[in-house]
Amino acid sequence: MKSRGCFTGSLSSQQLIELDACTQCGECLTFCPIQDVNSKPSISPPEKIRVFREFIKATEGLKARLFGPRDIDRKLLEEFTKAVFECTTCGACGQHCTVGIFSQRLWPQLRKEMVRRGIGPIGGQAKMPEVIRNTGNPYNLPAKDRFDPWFPAAVEVAETADTAYYAGCTGAYSAQPMVKGDVLVLKAAGEPFTMLPPEDEVCCGFPLFVSGQHDMLEDLIKRLVEAYRAKGVKMLLCSCPCCVNIMSRDWPIFYGQKLPFKIRHMTQFAAEALRSGKLKIRRELPERLIYHDPCYLSRGVGITEEPRIILRSIPGVQLIEFDRYGVNSRCCGAGGAARKVYPENANAIGRSTIDEAVKKKADRLIFSCPACYAQVNEGMLNHDRQIRIADIMELLSSLIEQDENSAS
Amino acid sequence: MFTLGIFLTLGFYLAMIFFLGDYIANVLIWIRGKSVDMAAHDKMSVRAFLQGVCDVLSFRRLLAVNDVLWIGEWIFHVSFVLVILRHLRYFLDPVPPCIWSVQTPGIIAGYLLPLTAMYIFVEKYLVEKKKYVSHYNSLLLGIISFISVSGLLMKTVYHPDVVSIKTFIISAVTFRFAPVPGSSFFILHVIFVLALLVILPTHIFAAPLVLLGARQREENLNRVIHEK
């Protein structure tokens, strides 16, 4: 089967220029987490760009304009699709790109093109739109279980407030210490906050965006924005980097205008609360902590300092760093909605994060992302190296609340 | 030699048509892209623009990831530009003073070009043993090496008639035919230059634009959710 038609419909002018700008130098391979665990050249960033450029040339290049477009073999398209969906979209290739291609945004758009052509997504990702439509989350779990299992009875949620908290699907269903820590920190800081009911706090759209399935996004985003607007929200807080990323970068585009509220990551709120004295750390923690920067938080929206401000303000803590940290951080393996489709890659990458933390003699590995938390936790199963892990809000809440939690 | 001159001149026109046509086709593709970029927070400032220009000129991003290769690539690209500028004396009559002023640097660059091409080859393929090898880049490197070595041999050993070379080139750019100088090195040199023109990479135009965008993105990263 052959495929024709334009390949540029999903891409912006900037991204089309980026495709042409790739010098094929291959320097990015050194920083690609997938290349560390699976060194097939076909899935390397420059090869994906080269192949996609060939698709564009064959259908819209000079020869195609003069003599008509060429057919593209379906098998080649399928191989390319596999390669582009195997990526974790962590953006490390772009961060270290010698010409500065913004690959964290480019790969999802190439995926979108493959979805548009009916070749992507891969495996279980294809069911996501239907699952989200039915349950409001990509995990096919009931909305009634979104908050109940972890939400502390002592924490009060206001009907309306300037501040709203969005737990996010991954946090609510698979990183509950994180979301519990979030609301405990909000309570301890004395910040009145509101939340949407569990059936209304639907997926932020990130899994659909990153897997190239954009059809539902506008409806989903408008529904969420209008719901928060109705509550008079001025600031929306969230701990999930992927949610924060799409909220700040893409929600305004799909909503069609500037959002009526600001987006903030929980570490921004907590760092400010510590600075202003609203939050006080009551316990010492004589430990060597190592902090993992989530790709969509550091490279995505520039949050690198706030988590470190929080960790450094804990008495007794010695903060150490990975070899690659901040905006140069290395992916944990969970990114790009590829975790469930290529679990071997995800686990191998997650384990190298564990190995480095153990090698650096960290007592605990700290995250500020539910997906990183879940991935590294999974990576430790049957792995010879083990390390204690914690979400930064889980840790902080345990040090500010004396009765309810412990730091262990 | 006159017939060969006609062939080479026509080849030059064809190569230029192909080069410009391909470039225009690319620009048309760029223009057809969606106007709303997904990176909504990017606004270019004068500071970011100037820093971006410095990035283009200094290859800063390559320096950040591979300083050993950077030195070779930077000298290679600067030499390439200087050699092209030096060669403009064959295309312009009278020759402007600015072109005369780059003749000496251009001669030095002519020596450095094949040396740095070899350095890049050795560093990439033999020392670092790069996991990803672009055959296209290898071809480009090979063609440029041949062009630079043949040029250097004409400068140092074989000395073709410079006046007839200029007559031939000026005729070609003013749409007239002239006999090609009787030097097989020159003929091969021109054929390889025409081949290079046809396969010249698109990144020579696109990469500087992307580098400017990358600077503005870096500057704006702290404003995505840090706005007041």
Structure description:
The complex is a heterodimer of chains A (408) and B (228). With 408 residues, chain A is α/β, with parallel strands linked by helices. Chain A folds into three domains: 119 residues, Fumarate Reductase Iron-sulfur Protein, Chain B, domain 2 (Orthogonal Bundle), CATH 1.10.1060; 147 residues, Rossmann fold (3-Layer(aba) Sandwich), CATH 3.40.50.1860; 118 residues, Rossmann fold. Chain A is 46% helix and 8% strand. In chain A, the strands form three sheets. Chain A has a four-stranded parallel β-sheet, sandwiched between helices. A four-stranded parallel β-sheet of chain A has the order 8-7-9-10. A two-stranded antiparallel sheet of chain A has the order 1-2. In chain A, strand 9, helix 19 and strand 10 form a beta-alpha-beta unit. The longest helix of chain A has 17 residues. The radius of gyration of chain A is 22 Å and the shape is globular. The C terminus of chain A is likely disordered. Chain B is mainly alpha-helical. Chain B has one domain: Transmembrane di-heme cytochromes, Chain C (Fumarate Reductase Cytochrome B subunit), CATH 1.20.950. Helix content of chain B is 75%, strand content 0%. Chain B is built from ten helices and no strands. In chain B, helix 1 runs parallel beside helix 9, helix 2 crosses helix 10 and helix 6 crosses helix 7. The longest helix of chain B has 31 residues. Chain B is globular. The chains are: A alpha/beta (408), B mainly alpha (228). Chains A and B meet through helix 1, helix 3, helix 13, strand 6 and helix 16 of A and helix 1, helix 3 and helix 10 of B.
